[in-house]
Amino acid sequence: MAPLLILLTSKQAQWIGFVLGGVIISLSTLTPIEHLPPAPGSDKLHHLIGFGGWALMCAFGPFRQFLIMATFIALWGGVIELIQPYVNRYGEWLDFFANSLGVLCTVTIKTLFHLRIARSISSS
Q: How many CB atoms within 10 Å of residue 54?
């Protein structure tokens, strides 16, 4: 396996993606609304892409660890919605569902790739 591929699929790279994504998402969702720049698209789409992207940042590593991280990411989406009213934002349960849907999309894609790779290895 190529050294870059080994590096990108390591536990360390997975943890870096998890922490970096967590910082980015936490800052962007907990910044008071008056400090946010305007962005095209709907709020729910931003949540779906943001949390799905965070899950994607830690998808390239051990599968079991990814599932644990993805569960945490979805739960953190709910915690953020509970915190937002205290930082001059609006906590909405539909945002939590959009966060979770983004994570679920990434988990589904990662699971399909994982199963395909496992099948190709067992048939070799």
A: 28
